[in-house]
Amino acid sequence: MASPARFxxxxxxxxxxxFARAAELMGTTMAGFVRVAAKEKATQLIERExxxxxxxxxxxxxxEALDAxxxxxxxxxxxxxxxxRTIKRA
Length: 90
What we know:
90 residues, 4 helices, mainly alpha, 67% helix
């Protein structure tokens, strides 16, 4: 583990009792229990929020778009024409 960083947490009595009981059941300290539980919850949240979920219809639309031939829009066509006039290749 990297150098430890301190994190203080105020709990009401019922929360402390709950966490202490759970820690005892796990055979760890209350700090160890809270650390593991917080890490699991944070990991789940980050994974959930990082995932893109599509409906079946949206998935089909995405696959169709990926399979379709590329067609540049007018702004991109104009930019490519300007680049061709400006850039000289050796």
